[in-house]
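Researcher: Go.
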Amino acid sequence: MLSRPKPGESEADLLHFQNQFLAARASPAVKIVKKADKRKGEEGSTDAERPPLQDSKDVVMLDDFPDVLPVLTPAPPKKSKIKSACVRFEDEDPEERLESHDRHITAVFSKIIERDTSAVAVTMPVPTGDPFPRTFHRSEIKSEVKVGTGGKSIFAQKMAARRAAEKAAAAPSAAECVRVRSAAPAAVDPEGSAGEAPLPSFRGDKAGDSQRSCLITGEGLGSQKSEQEAQAIHKENLEKLRSMSEEEIRQEQEKLLAQLDSNLIAFLKSRRSGNEGQKKELKMEQNRPEEFVESLPVAQHGVGSSLSTRELGLEESVRKEENSKVEITDEDLPVKPKKEWIHMDNVEFDKLEWMKDLPSPRQKKTKKGMQARFSLKGELIPADADLPTHLGLHHHGEEAERAGYSLQELFHLSRSQVIQQRTLALQVLGRIVQKARAGEFASSLKGSILQLLLDAGFLFLLRFSLDDAVDNVMAASVGALQALLVSLDDEKYLDWTFSWYQGMAAFPFVPSNEEEEEEEEEELNGTEKSQDKKVKDENKPDPDVARYDVVKGLLKTRIQHRLRYILEVVRPVPTVVLDILHILTHIARHSSEACSQLLDCPRLIETVVREFLPTQWDPQVAEPGHLLTSLHGVACAAAMKFIRVLASGGRNATARLLNQFEMKRRLSRFIAEDPLDLLLPREEAIRLSTEAFRLWAVAAGYGQACELYRDLYPVLVRILQSLPELLTTCLGKSPVTDLSVQRAAAVVTLLSRVTQTAACTEELQAKLRSNGSEESEQIPPPPVTWNQVSGLQPFLETSLKKFLQEISQRETWQTFQPLTTTYVIYLGVYYSACSQQLSVNPVDCLEELERLTSEVLLPLLSQPAMHSMWDLLRPCSALCNPLSCSPAPESVSSIASLSCAGGKPPLSLVGSKSPFPFLTALLFLIDSITRVHKGLTSKYSSVLGFRGLKDYLHQSWQAGPPSVTPSSAWILRHEYHLQYFALALARRMAGACPDYAQHASLHHCVAMALLSRLLPGSEHLAYEVLLDLAFNQEFLPEGRAGGPEAADFSDILHLGTSAKLAQPGSAAASFSKATRGALLRESYQNLPSIRSCYLSHLVHLQPALMRSQASYQGRNYLIQSMLLPEVRGPILPSDWPFFPLISLYNKVTNAETRGAVLNSLPLDLVNTVTWNLQWVLLLETWRARTLQGIPTAAKLARLMCVFLTGSDLFLEAPIHHYTAALLTVYCHPKALDSLNLDAPIPGLASFHDLYISLLEQFEGVSFGDPLFGVFVLLPLQKRFSVQLRLAVFGEHASILQALGVPLQQFPVPLERYTSPPEDNLNLLRLYFRTLVTGALRHAWCPVLYVVAVAHVNCFIFSQDSTTQETDVARKSMLRKTWLLVDETLKKHLLYYRVLNAESPLGFDLYEQLPPMRLKYLQMVTQKENKENTPALVS
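Model: Structure:
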C-alpha cells in the first residue's frame, strides 16, 4: 500500500509517488460520479464523459485505416449559445460593444477624480493569530428588521428595512415648500439646480438644500470623512454650474435626458422630490406654472422659464404613461385565480397584465415615421390595420397592439434557439428582400430596406445561417441569399439579349463605386493595379470588403465551399438546389476572378455536372403530375446555364469545362436529341437544349469545341430545316413558343460563331507555314474549314425570306423578331468572312451580294412596317429617355443589378416592341455588304433619309451625357452599336452620294457625341470613328461652304468677339496678324495632321483596342473572355479634345519633377500643341454644342497648360495666334457668365495651386506678354475666391510691374472686377499699400490700377455701419490719402467717380467732391489744416 504524502516532501517526491501509483495500476481512492444534465436527458452520464481510467470500451484496429476519420470540408460548425445571441464581426472590440450598451450612470459621470488622501492617517491592520479575517455575520446588520409573519426572505427583509429608513427621513412638508417658493429671488438658487441632479428641476428648494447634495451622500467611501468628501464634490459641482451660461446648462440637461435610462431618471426625481408632500406641491405648481415663472428674477427669467417648461413636459409625459396603465382586476383576467391554488394567495396583477385584451391599434398623428411591420408573407402591414390575433402576427414585444414583425424583431428571432423561429425569421426576411427588390415598398417606406439590412449585418447573418446544421434553417438562408443577390428578371433579359449583335459579351457584375483609395493608383499599370488591389482585399476584414462588394465579401468567407457541401452532402430539396445554382450563376457573372475561384473549389463543378447534368436519369420525371422530390440525378437547365456563364469568364475556363469536366460529351448528349424526346417536362427540356446551344456558342466564340460541328452536322441541318415550320406550329403567344424561338435563335447564333472560327482557318494555317521554324507560340488552326460551313448559308437565307414576309403581321413579327435578327446577323458575319477567303471566287461573292440586295433588302426597306420601326427608335431609346435605364428604387451600390425587376416596358430598348435589335442587325448587314461591294452603297441611300432615324439621331446627340451605371451600361452599349453602323453607312455615303452634304453636320455631331460616350470594350468603334469620321473634311462642310468668311464677318460686326490680343511688343509681332477666318481655314486644311496627332496620343489604349478588334472583327482565336472590362466611365474623358495638350503638360511637369529642365521644345511638340489648338478652335466655332459638357473653367484651365509647358512655347507665333483666338471665344459674355472657378473642376485637384504655378511662370518667363497677362487677370474677377487676389497683391506683387495689358485690348468688362465693392480688409490694405508705395502704377498695370483705385475710393468714402476695426481702418486710410505727396494718385483716390472704358485712365473723375463726401472728408481730417480744402487743379 502506498503511503500518503507527508509535510516537507518536495515536488520530486510527489512525482515519484505518482509514478509508483501508475505502475501499480491500483484503483483510485476517489471515484468521480457525474450527475446527468437535466437539459440533455441522460447524455450527461454517457461513456464519453467517464474518466479515462474507467474506459472499458472494446477497440477494433483495422490495417491501412486512418485513426481519425476524414474531416468534411468545411466541417459542421459548432453551435454556440453565446454567439448565436447576436451578429458580431471579427474586428468588433468587446470593450467597445460593452460601452455602447452601457446604460449605467457611470456612462454619464465618467470623469473620476481621486480624492486627496494626504491628510488621512494610515493605520496598519491589527495582527491576529487567526489564519483568516474574522467573518462578518448578517445578524450584526443594525438596519435589519425582523418580520414575524409571512416568512420573508433575507433580501425582502433588507428592502423593507431600507424603505422604513427612507420613510423615517421624511422631507419638508408641502406647506414649507410653498412658503419657500414664495420668497421671490432668494428662493431661486442659480447654482443649486442642475448640479444636484442630472435632470432639470424647479429652483424652489429650501436654502439649505443648495448646501447639501441629495444624490451624493458619501456612504460608499468607507471612511470617517465621507461626509466632508461628499460636500467637497457638491461644492465643486456648484462652482462648475456658476461658470456655465444658461444655454450651456440647458444643453447639458438635454444631453443627460437623452443619455440616461428612463428608470434612472425616475429614481433621481424621487430622490429630488423626497416625499409625497413634494409630489402634491409639484402638481400644484403644474396647475399654475405662469405664476412661478413670473416670480423669477429678471436676470434668470429666460433659463428658468425654459427649464420649468421642460420639467413640466417631462412630468406630464410620465403622468400620461402612468394614467395609460389601467389597473387590472380579477374581472379582467380570462382565468380567475382560486385560493386553493398554490402560491396564488397574493396575485401580482402587474405580471398578469399581458393576459388582457390588446387595445385597438391607433395611428399616431405625428410627422415622424412609424416602425415598419411585416406579415409572414413579407408584406408591409399598414400602421392602422386591425388584424385578428389568430393570424400569429401579434407578440409581446414593443407595440404589442400592432400586428406584424419589425426588422429588428426578425433579426432577433433569426438567432433564436428554437429551430422553427430561426427558420421562420429567415423565410420572412427573404420574402421582404424579394418584395423590396421588386419595388413594392418604394412609395411606402422611407429609405432603402436593402441598404438598412446590409448595414445591420444581414449578409453575414445569412452566411452564419448557411453553416447551421438544421436543414430547414439552411434552406431558408439559401432562399434569402438568393432573393438578396439574384434577380430572375435580370437573368431573363440577359438571356433575351444573348442572340443580339455582340450580345454574348456582357459587363461583369462588379459594383461601380469601389473605394476611393483605388483612384490614387492611376500611376500603376493594369497588372500592378490588379495585384495591389487583390493584396489589399485579402488584408481587409470580410465586412469591409462586403461593404462595397457583396459578392467579393462572400467569396472571402469561402461560400462556394459551403454551397458545394450542401449540394453534395446535404442534398436538399429541388427549390434549394435551384436557388444555389442561381446564386452560383450570379457569382460567376461577377468577374473572371470569381469564375476562377468557383472552378478551383474542390468537387464543386464535379458535383454540379455529375448530379444535375447526368446523361441518363429516371424516366418518371417526364410523367405528368409527377412530384419531383429530389433534383439530384436529373438534368437541369439551371445547371447548364451556370456552366455557360462560367465559360463566359475566359477561354481557359471553357477549356477546363470541356475537357476536365467532360462537357463535350454532355453537349453531344443534349444537342443530338430533340427536346421532345428528352425525358423531362417540355418547357424544361427546351430550356436545357437552349442552354446547351448557348454553351456551345460560347465555346465556339473562343474557337473551341468546333470538332463537335462535324459530328453533329446532320443534327444541325435537321434543326435548320425545321425552323420555318415554327411559323405554323408556334401560333399565338405562349411560354413554349417563346422558348422554341429562343432555342432557334441560339442555334443560329452558334452557327455565326462557328462561321467566324472557320473563317480564321486559312489565316492560321498560313501563319503556321510561314513561322514553322520559329520558336514562338503557334496557334493551331481550328478543326473546321470554310467549305464545311458555307453550305448552310442557303438554308438560312431561305428561312430569312419566309420570316420577313411576316413583317406586316405585328403579333407574328413580334414573336419571331429575335430569330429573324439572328438570321440577319448570320448573313452579315458570313459575307464579312466570305470576302476574306482565298478559296472563294470574288466575282461570285459580289454577285451574291447584288442578288441579296435586290431580292431581299431593298424590298424590305420599302415596306411600310419598316417606316414604323424607324419611328420607334426615339420612343425606345435610352439616350432620349434616360429614366428607362435608371437604377431601381431598392438598388444598392454593393450589389450590381440591371434594374429589370418587374420587367421593362414594351417601349424600351430591351422591351418587346423595341426595333433596336433588328435594325442594328440590318445596319450591320448593310455595313458588311457595302464594305465588300462599294458599288452598292448608293442603293442604301434611303436608309439615312428615314425621318424616324434623323429625328432619333438629332435628339440623341443633344441629350445630356448619360449616367454610367450597371443598369445603364449594358443597354447603352447596344444603342451605341446602332449609332455606329448608321455613321459607318454615312461615311461611305459621303464619298459616293453627291447630295449627302445635307446630313454631314448632323452625323458629325452624332460622331462627336458618340466618341465621348463609348464604353470599355468598344475601343474598336472609337478608333473607327476617330479614323474615318471625326476628322473627316466631308463631315465639316462649313470649311468649304463659307465658314471662315462668316467668322471674319462676325468679327467685323463685333457679334461675339473683342479686340485682338496680339500686341506689337509681343513675340508674335514679327508675324502677320491672322484673322479668325484665316485660322479656321488653316485648321480645316490640317485635319489629316490633326487626326494623326490624336491617334498617336491615344496609343495607351492599344492593348484594349486589340482585344476589342478581335471581338468585333470575328477573330475568335484571340478572344480571351466574353466578360467586358469593368465600367468606370466612358473610354475617352469628356475633355478628350484637349488630351494632347494635357499629355504634353504632364510630360514636362514630370520631367521637371525629376530635376530635368526643358529649355527648348522640339518642333513636333510645337506642332502638337498647334494642332490641338486648331482642333479645339474648329469645334468651338462650328461644333460648340459638342463641347458643352466641358465647363468653361475646365477649358480655361487646360488652355493655361500652354503657358505652363516649357519656357517659351507660348511665344511661338501659331500657338500665340490660336490661343488668342480661343481666349476671345471664352471671354464672350455668355462664357464669362458660366465661368465658375470656385466649383470643383474635373481633372484638377485645386485651381488655386494651378493659378499659383501660373503666377510663378509669369514671373519667370512672361516677358510682359499681354496674352499671358490676360490669363493671369481673368481669375481675379470679384466673384471668384479672394485668395487668388490676395496671392497677386501679396506674395506675387512683383508681377504688377509686368501686367501691361492695355485697357483697350482687355476683353473682360472692368465691372466684373469692381462690383460689388470689396469687403476684405486685408485685400483693401494691400490695394492701398501697392498704390502708395508705387508698386502698382497706371503705366505698368492699367487694369489692376483701375480696380484698386475703384475699391479704395469706395471703401474710404463708405459710411455704412460696420465693425470698429473696419471703421478705424477706413478713416486711417482716408487720412493717409489726404496726406499723400503724390498729387496724381491723391486726386485719383479722392475724385474717382465711375468706370469709363473710353477714357485713357479707364475711369472718370469728379470736378469737385460732392457735398456729402466733402463734409465727411473734413470731419475725418479736422485735425489737419482747414485751409487745405480739396479743389480740382486746372
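Model: The chain is about 50% helix and 0% strand.
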